[in-house]
Amino acid sequence: MSLIKQLWLIVAALLLLAFGGSLFIGVTASRAYIEQEVLIKNADNASALALTMSQMPKDPVTLELLVSAQFDTGHYRRVELRSPKGEIIEQRLGGDAIRDVPAWFVDLVHIEVPPGRAVVQDGWRQLGTLVLESQHSFAYRSLWRSTLSLVGWFGLAAVISLLLTWWIVRQIRRPLSAVVEQAQHIGQRRFTTVPAPRTRELREVVEAMNRLSAAVGNMLGEESQKLDRLRQQLQHDPVTGVLNREAFLSQLQIHLDSQDARASGALALVRLAHLVEINERLGRAETDALLNEMAHGLEQFGQAHGGGIVGRLNGSDFVMLLPGKIDLEQLRHDLGRRLAAMRERGRTPVGLPGALIDYAQGDQRSMLLASLDGTLSAAETRSDEGLMIAEGPQRRSLFTSHDEWRYALQVAMAKGIYLAHYPVLDATGELLHIECPSRLRLAGEWQPAGVFIPWISRLGLDSQLDLAVIDEAIRDITHRGKPLGINLSVASIQDAHFVIELQSRLKARPDVAKLLWLEIPEAMAIHDLASFRSLCRALQPLGCRIGLEHVGASFTRIADLQDLGLAYLKLDRTLVRGIDRVAEQQTILRGMATLCHSLGILAIGEGVENREEARVLFELGLDGATGPGIRQHEKPAD
Questions:
Q1: What separation in angstroms does the CA of 631 have from each of 423, 612, 623, 627?
Q2: What is d(CA 625, CA 638) in angstroms, rounded to the nearest whole number?
Q3: What is the Cα–Cα distance from 565 to 224, expressed in whole angstroms?
Q4: What CA–CA distance (Å, rounded) separates 390 from 357?
Q5: Which residues cross the membrane (predicted)?
Q6: Is 609 helix (H, G, I), strand (E, B) or coil?
Q7: Nearest 5 degrees, angle CA 236-CA 242-CA 248?
Q8: Which range is least confidently modeled, 2-6, 493-497, 567-571?
Q9: What is the largest distance, in Å, between two alpha-carbon atoms of the chain?
Q10: CA distance linking residue 318 with residue 312, whole number of Å
Q11: Which alpha helices (H) appear in 236-327, and where do they start and end?
């Protein structure tokens, strides 16, 4: 039984005990008082009447008149005169009916008062014994009315007491519910903190639990910082802090192979001209500072243009990856202005020639880089401030205008979406869920998401597409009965109407909601935490599992999200690729898996290319794997 129910029972028992005690004592005391008063009345009246009879003539008429007069002047049940032998000389009897008092109350109270007795004298001899008994009906009536008044007043007091108790219980229950919820969160490895309540006992418990949550959070933060430093050493250039050549090329390949908006965009290659001469003139420290300033400027430009990624290919060459549909001419203008500003702010005049090229899903990484490098050499030959657009691979555009794209996309979504199926398996080869990237039928063929997602975002159709994908996922789960993983776009999550629509669809199908895994890019959850929290609060009570994909660079921020109840993390492909050959990556992934398990979160590796990588991942403690090397019903090699 809950503490609140026990408190209510105690309050109710106390009220009943107080009422019963008050009623019992009140009725008992009143009955005793009435019995005493009636007894005195009987004795006094009997004595007075006997004295009067003793002084009056003793003929029958006089005796009858005296008895009748006494009986008629008061409330009597019985007035009688008996001879010494017990014979009735004169008698008057009254009725016992009590019409306005319940019979059960009369039987329960039962007033019993002895009659008054007195001797009537006739000179020196005893004429008889006078017996006088008063009527009790008025006593019952008085007790009944006082009892009703007591019940009424006590009922009013009970209502006020219960209302006051309800208010007090409510004030206690709020912090108590917070304490219970916090305890449940800790049991789920979500180390949240709550405000300390005013109740001293609860405040001590909450403060202790808050200290525990803070200690665990600090521990997890320290461990994640250590892992991030290892990742920085492995993937980042020690001088500038941007990605090194291997890490950037891996990111580029991931973008070219992806099934989302990252599958198309632009590449920019910028060179610090005459690096050798600059190094000789300024010295190593000044040159490193110049390189660091240049990398920082490119990173700022990339973040301002949709979350670009910057890497250092060699000593003087920096490359920037800008995902999404981008106008190269506009990019050339904006980047040119930024490079000009960087040249002006520099400690010494420098040349920053550059080259731009667009990319799309399926392009060859080597061809893109070769074209960029050739164009950069041409720009450097012309001028140290040149910025040229490289000639990219010849591609056939499905449609030529915005209106054509909008019409084609809306028609395709109206006809229906196809969901591809890629399994996510655990260490035993059992299915965790199925990844389901969307496909649309455009220009007579089913096109992957990388082809149309940039146009979906550009035309503001994200929410419409995601709702269509959810509807198809509901049909798929209903038909197959297997858990599906669906990607949600950033724009949809930031759309309150979309979240409400999604919530209503899943409320109508609670059986489907429990089999739905929703994935959000890591960058979105970190940079728009408010929208992500709203999504979690709306969907988690329905049984959905919410996780992050492409987790890597911002892993240290995951501890900030541990109170949201994340179900899983998909670790980025750059950390998984070649895991069977690089010991440093194994250390990083083992630590990530340990931290995820400390928070009750599944750790899943993305982009697994072969069974050997999958075997190492599971040995490191990861819970699942997905990618080209993962096939359903196929267990990793022992």
A1: 7, 13, 16, 8
A2: 15
A3: 18
A4: 5
A5: 6-27, 150-169
A6: coil
A7: 75
A8: 2-6
A9: 161
A10: 4
A11: 245-257, 275-282, 284-304
For the ranges 221-225, 448-452, 532-536, 631-635, the lowest mean pLDDT is seen at: 631-635
Gap between the Cα atoms of 267 and 255, Å rounded:
11
Provide the strand spans (E) within 106-256: 116-122, 125-134
Q: How far is CA 79 from CA 51, 68, 93, 133, 325, in A?
A: 15, 9, 7, 6, 117
Residue 425 has, within 13 A of its CA and on its CB side, a CA count of 22
Cβ atoms within 10 A of the Cβ of 88, count? 11
Residues 6 or more apart whose Cβ sits within 8 Å of residue 560: 526, 529
Q: What's the CA gap between 88 and 82, in Å, rounded?
A: 4
518 close to 547: Cβ distance less than 8 angstroms: yes
pLDDT of residue 110: 78
Residue pointed to by tokens 């920037």: 320
Token pair recorded at residue 147? 């009892």
Q: Poorest-confidence range of 59-63, 266-270, 472-476?
A: 59-63
| Strand bridging mode 545-551 / 516-521 | parallel
Looking from the CA of 24 toward its CB, the CA atoms found within 13 Å total 6
> Would you say 260 and 450 are in contact if contact means Cβ atoms under 8 Å apart?
yes
| Bridge partners, 305 (sequence order) | none
Q: Which two tokens stand for residue 128?
A: 């008889």
The identity of residue 487, as a single letter, is N
Q: Coil, strand, or helix at residue 99?
A: coil
What single-letter DSSP state applies at residue 196?
P
